[in-house]
UniProtKB/TrEMBL annotation:
Residues 583-671 form the Elongation factor EFG domain. NCBIfam families: PRK12740.1-1, PRK12740.1-5, small_GTP. The keyword Nucleotide-binding applies. SMART domains: EFG_C, EFG_IV. Keywords: GTP-binding, Nucleotide-binding. It holds the Pfam family EFG_III. This is Elongation factor G-like protein EF-G2. It comes from Kitasatospora cinereorecta. Residues 465-581 form the Translation elongation factor EFG/EF2 domain. The lineage of its organism: Bacteria, Bacillati, Actinomycetota, Actinomycetes, Kitasatosporales.
Length: 675
């Protein structure tokens, strides 16, 4: 832990869940979330000096890869104490590849702070996340950063936010302060409700009109306050403050705050005051998750899993109900019970002891060897549903670099998958490749780095292979003769086959032998040999959709055997294949692409270049289109990356296997392998 941490600062504790605030910072990559978290920790007294993202000295970004890339790649927690309230401040990655960590933060938090860079437009992904939070009923506020830009005009920025987030009701997105922003520096602000001065703002003159507009907007959501306001009654500060809390919790008011860049970090006190006074506690949750009751049975969920070089696996838990104490035995679904020995409160990399964890709190537990991210820990067996995760659609085939790496690879990947539920590890039964399915290139880079640095496993990336198939282009006949005499017991088997295509029919074996030319006990042997050859294929890919008919053959009373007829059956199939064209089949997926209307044309053109067949387009929501198409899997290997580029990060897609279809002749030659 850096020596910037306040000396001997214990983990913040509270005695009641209503004194807890769980807040997650979200926003576009580069908006300033980590810098804001550092500034808030400094203001709350948890740090003696703020760190810097470019210098790699921030507390929340404590992994080396985060320092190298200068961006967050995982969810981190900074518990802060402010006005007898414990604020669990969660810093979530903004880059799209780490959406799993973002959604884990949404599950852990009770409110969301959208961090927005004032000079920038509101991006589509951020707007989509806002709507997702709105649909889930999660309270939201907005924090403006990067004010030290000449072109920032706060009035214009506010109009932009109201247009983007107001959903037709601009008075739901409002500043609660008058800001004194001069030359890119926030000199201070004045609370419009209480009149309190923060920093050293210049005298703005009479703010009565601004306070009246704010009071009218707040009172408009409360019938009692509205009646008092319309009757000309002066609304007292206490009533308005309570109304702000009520409306923030209900999602009818989204306060806007401004924070000056570090190290001054003007605006942090205002933000911490607002979180403590107006943000929801765990008692205010209205979702279907277990109710916040200290005396109920324990229900907790693993929202993040990390590794510590000294203590091993660390599981970050959100306690939903009950009180978690050391030496508690917890149930895990489909796995052995585990005993929790000690509790700690993470502060970046540091772990500080905790005596217990109340419902609503976030706590770290070491060495839960069977627990994975998303798992439920209970004392009565109840399950908490997992949160939605982005689907891993970018494949990367890897091989162990050496025999020593191969011995450790399986265990290392299992540990990574337990930590990161967006990672899908596949041992492809058709291509025999080990494939890591990731959400994007940045996600893949982090996984490979963790394999190397955490577990000492080096892997090499190899070209990803698609599971192709083969079939007969037309009917053909084959003669299989396996006759060998080498003294003593020989081998003798002859069979004649006809093979014909059977589109979509799999495999059929038909016996049309007459007169006993092939003894009955050897007919299954012929079929077994044919099946073995079909599995191997002619050009190195499994053969499917054929009907094989055994028409004739010969046997020897002494030298014929099961093995001999298996070999003859395979030889007959190969001879039949040599007489006709063997057609390569490639897998075809149905893709469903959701994207803004303005990118539909570019995406449709791109699908055409990928040999895609568009099935149709339909309305995907306000300003959105849903495109359905069938596309060969060979053309989708890097589609997650390329769709993100085409749609400026706003498009998303799903895919599902439909069938194998004939591959064009001009491509087939590239994928034919020697049998």
């Amino acid at each position: 832990m850096p020596d910037r941490a306040a000396t001997h600062t214990p983990a913040p504790t509270v005695e009641r869940p209503d004194r807890l605030r769980n807040v997650v910072l979200v926003g576009a990559s580069g908006a300033g979330k980590t810098t804001l978290a550092e500034a808030l920790a400094l203001t709350a007294g948890a740090l003696t000096r703020a760190g810097s993202v470019p210098e790699g000295t921030t507390v929340s970004d404590h992994e080396e890869i985060e320092h190298q890339q200068q961006r967050s790649v995982q969810l981190s927690l900074l518990p802060l104490a402010w006005q007898d309230v414990k604020i669990n401040l969660l810093d979530a990655p903004g880059y799209a590849d780490f959406g799993g960590e973002l959604h884990a933060g949404l599950r852990a938090a009770d409110a969301v702070l959208f961090v927005h860079s004032a000079p920038d437009e509101v991006s589509r992904p951020v707007l989509a996340l806002w709507r997702e939070c709105a649909a889930a009923g999660i309270p939201r506020a907005v924090v403006l950063t990067h004010l030290n830009t000449a072109r920032v005009q706060l009035d214009e920025v506010l109009l932009t936010l109201q247009d983007a987030f107001g959903d037709g009701h601009p008075d739901t997105v409002l500043p609660l302060h008058h800001w004194d922003l001069r030359e890119g520096h926030l000199h201070g602000s004045i609370d419009l409700l209480t009149g309190r001065h923060y920093g050293s703002p210049e005298d703005p003159g009479d703010l009565a009109d601004a306070r009246a507009r704010l009071a009218e907007a707040i009172a408009g959501e409360d019938d009692t306050l509205l009646e008092r306001y319309l009757n000309g009654e002066e609304l007292d500060t206490g009533a308005l403050t309570e109304a702000v809390h009520r409306e923030v919790v209900q999602g009818t008011l989204h306060p806007v705050l401004a924070v000056s860049p570090a190290p001054e970090a003007g605006g942090c006190e205002e933000l911490l005051d607002l979180i403590a006074a107006a943000f929801p506690s765990p008692l205010d949750r209205t979702d279907d998750l277990p109710a916040c009751d200290p005396d109920a049975t324990l229900a907790a969920q693993v929202v993040h899993t990390g590794e510590d070089p000294y203590v091993g696996r660390l599981s970050l838990l959100r306690i939903f109900s009950g009180t978690l104490r050391p030496d508690t035995t917890v149930h895990l679904a489909d796995r052995p019970d585990e005993r929790i020995t000690a509790l700690s409160s993470p502060f970046g990399r540091q772990q500080r002891p905790m005596p217990l964890a109340l419902p609503g709190d976030l706590v770290s537990v070491a060495k839960l060897t069977g627990a994975r991210t998303g798992d439920t820990l209970t004392t009565d067996g109840a399950l908490i549903p997992p949160w939605p995760l982005p689907e891993a659609l970018l494949p990367c085939a890897v091989e162990a670099h050496s025999k020593a790496d191969e011995d450790k690879l399986s265990q290392a990947l299992a540990r990574l998958a337990a930590q990161d539920p967006t990672l899908r590890v596949e041992q492809n039964p058709d291509t025999h490749q080990l494939v890591l399915w990731c959400t994007g290139e940045a996600h893949l880079g982090v996984l490979l780095d963790r394999l190397r640095t955490r577990y000492g496993v080096h892997v090499d990336s190899v070209p990803y292979e698609v599971a192709l198939r083969e079939t007969f282009g037309s009917a053909a006949s084959g003669h299989g003769r396996h006759v060998k005499q080498s003294g003593g017991h020989g081998q003798y088997a002859i069979c004649d086959l006809t093979v014909e295509p059977l589109p979509g029919g799999g495999f059929e074996f038909v016996d049309k032998v007459v007169g006993g030319s092939v003894p009955r006990n050897f007919i299954p042997s012929v079929e077994k040999g044919v099946r073995a050859q079909l599995l191997h294929g002619i050009h190195g890919h499994p053969m499917v959709d054929v009907r094989v008919t055994l028409t004739d053959g010969k046997a020897h009373s002494v030298d014929s055997s099961d093995a001999a007829f298996q070999t003859a059956g395979a030889l007959a199939l190969r001879e039949a294949a040599s007489q006709v064209k063997v057609q390569l089949l490639e897998p075809v997926d149905e893709v469903r692409i959701l994207l803004p209307d303005e990118y539909q044309g570019a995406v449709l053109n791109d699908l055409s270049s990928r040999r895609g067949h568009v099935l149709g387009t339909e309305n995907g929501g306000p300003g959105m289109s849903l495109v359905r198409a069938e596309v060969p899997e060979l053309e989708l290997t890097r589609y997650p990356v390329e769709l993100r580029s085409l749609s400026h990060g706003t498009g998303e897609f799903t895919r599902s296997y439909v069938r194998h279809s004939p591959m064009p002749a001009n491509l087939a030659g590239q994928y034919e392998r020697a049998s």
